[in-house]
Amino acid sequence: MPESLLGRATRVAGRAAPYAVVPALLTVLAFENVLATAAAGGLGVSVKLSLPTAVPTLWTVFDPPATGLSFVTPTPLAALPVYLAVDAVLTAGYLGGIHDAARDASPDFAASVAAYALPVLGVRVVEFLTVGAFGFLLVAGGNVLVAFVAFPLVLFAGYLLWGAPFLVVARDRGTVDALAESVSLALDGGRYLRFSALFAVGVAAVSVFVSPLLTAGGLGTIVLLAVLAAYPALIASAAAMLVVDRTADRPASGQPANGEPAPGNDGQSRGA
After folding, report:
1. Separation of alpha carbons 138 and 184, rounded Å
2. Under a CB-based contact definition with an 8 Å cutoff, are residues 245 and 167 in contact?
3. What is the pTM of this model?
């Protein structure tokens, strides 16, 4: 009986268990989110839709409380370049370790950082600018019509681009090639689309239970949940890596697989 995606992802995560520290660390490094959530008080329930991401954190399933519509960044804008650089380093080492574990190799965080940090940083900057631009449109208009148009654009941009960091590592792509291939996989649908939908539904379900704990629990609860969620986040990242890696091996719709002749070509000249 074939092993399920969850089973394979759990096995890969087990080989890279120490890497679970990365989701926990990135949760607390987003200190604007931490402070806003810790100061919220009261009890609130919210539902969040999120697409797969290289390093899932608490902020994947929960948006910090805000007054009205607002454009929230994980750190003050002045510190954002530093945050993105640190995020890229941690993400490169984290995804590299997961990919090593998936290939039954010994995870090497430092080697992965050296190989992938710069292209991952490029992807992260493009993701932030693209999704952030639509997010700014969502809050800048201040009316329901603009929000109605911008929200699907935010989700669609995230859908197109989430595979790029995984492709940097799994296929040793540069920033531009990884982004282009991610868009191609997304538009082709298939396994990439199914996993995206399943992830979004799972996040929405988890957010219902996590949101009241975070809004009512204070700083201690945030830290505790960051630790408890770290290993499930590692499993989710491993699953996304497996999906992208396997999907990238398949030809796009209408294209021949590697080593197969093109349709209508049996290896001989048509004029023969």
Report:
1. 26
2. no
3. 0.86
User: How many CB atoms lie under 10 A from the CB of residue 112?
Assistant: 23
| CB of 56 closer than 8 Å to CB of 95 | no
Q: Return d(Cα 272, Cα 266) in angstroms, integer.
A: 11
- Residue 17 DSSP symbol: G
The CA–CA distances, whole Å, from 163 to 52, 129, 135, 240 equal 8, 16, 20, 8
Instruction: Break the chain into its structural domains and give their ranges.
Output: 5-62+70-249
Cβ-in-10-Å burial (0-12, 13-18, 19+) of 267 comes to: exposed
How far is residue 203's CA from residue 28's CA, in Å, rounded to a whole number? 19
Beta-carbon count within 10 A of 47 CB: 12
Contact yes or no for 186/261 (Cβ under 8 A): no
Residue with tokens 């590697």: 258
Query: What's the CA gap between 220 and 170, in Å, rounded?
Result: 36
Higher pLDDT among residues 43 and 36, named by residue: 36
Task: Convert the pLDDT of each residue in 190-241 to its tens digit.
Answer: 999 999 999 999 999 999 999 999 988 889 999 999 999 999 999 999 999 9
